[in-house]
Amino acid sequence: TTLAMDQIANQAAKIRYMFGGQAKVPLVIRTPFGGGVNVAAHHSQCLEAWFMHVPGLQVAVPSTPYDAKGLLKTAIRNDNPVIFCEHKLLYPITGPVPEEEYTLPFGVADVKREGTDVTIVATLYMVHKSLNAAETLRKEGINVEIVDPRTLVPLDKETIVNSVRKTGRVVIVTEDCKTAGVSAEIAAIIAEEALDYLDAPIKRVATPDVPIPFSPPLEQYVIPDEKRIVKAVKEVVY
């Protein structure tokens, strides 16, 4: 996708607007994302925040096979260009997928786990790491709610904000770089729309602003894991 940024950001994203809606761009770009498979800096990036910043693009970030099929069906039927982000570590994951036709609407988040003590907003493979962390925290008496946005553009702000208002605490977990990343945008929305409901500061768990290393130990060190998620949750709860 980086080699095609001019065509994506300056052409596909703008054609419908520049032609007053008379032209359509029913384009779906499926792009493998993410680290954890030891393929070094060029092939381990998470660049979804880049595409969020381009008006005219829609961005899907499925975390399960069910979501992937439903969102892809919707993307194909869309008259706007869609960046369909596929984390490489999600390809081996199995789960129930109906054989019959179904679609999932863009802009509708999914609460992957209900809870009362703290909200985790997580995307892509971080949803699964957050679910594992939530199980660890459950054994310590902390009840975690996990919200999966499923699409970043459009973003279901209402579900995120309502969850934060319910729990009073939030940790945002993403694999992209922390500075100006997805977690920063979600944190800004929460600060604008749910600040008075917070009982603790917003906490973000994301990758440091460094290229993803080829060395497996270093790669594991920079990418968020369950231990960092558990630590962040405890910091906002206690």
Task: Characterise the protein shown here.
The structure is a single chain. It contains nine helices and nine strands. It has helices at residues 5-12, 15-18, 48-52, 65-76, 126-138, 157-167, 182-194, 216-222, 226-237, and strands spanning 28-33, 58-60, 82-87, 110-113, 118-122, 144-148, 151-153, 170-177, 203-207. The strands form two sheets. The chain has a five-stranded mixed sheet with strand order 4-6-5-8-9, with helices on both faces. Strands 1-3-2-7 form a four-stranded mixed sheet. The mean pLDDT is 97. The protein is globular, with a radius of gyration of 18 Å. Helix 4 (65-76) links the parallel strand 2 (58-60) and strand 3. The protein is 36% helix and 19% strand. It has 238 residues and is of the alpha/beta class. The longest helix is centred in the middle third of the chain and has 13 residues, at 126-138. Helix 6 crosses helix 7 (182-194). The chain folds into two domains: 2-90, 3-Layer(aba) Sandwich (Rossmann fold), CATH 3.40.50.970; 110-237, Rossmann fold (3-Layer(aba) Sandwich), CATH 3.40.50.920.
Strand and helix map with partners:
Blueprint: H1 5-12, H2 15-18, E1 28-33, H3 48-52, E2 58-60, H4 65-76, E3 82-87, E4 110-113, E5 118-122, H5 126-138, E6 144-148, E7 151-153, H6 157-167, E8 170-177, H7 182-194, E9 203-207, H8 216-222, H9 226-237
Parallel strand pairs: 1-3, 2-3, 5-6, 5-8, 8-9
Antiparallel strand pairs: 2-7, 4-6
Helix pairs in contact: 5-9, 6-7
Summarize this structure as a short list of keywords or feature phrases.
four-stranded mixed beta sheet, 238 residues, globular, 19% strand, five-stranded mixed beta sheet, 2 domains
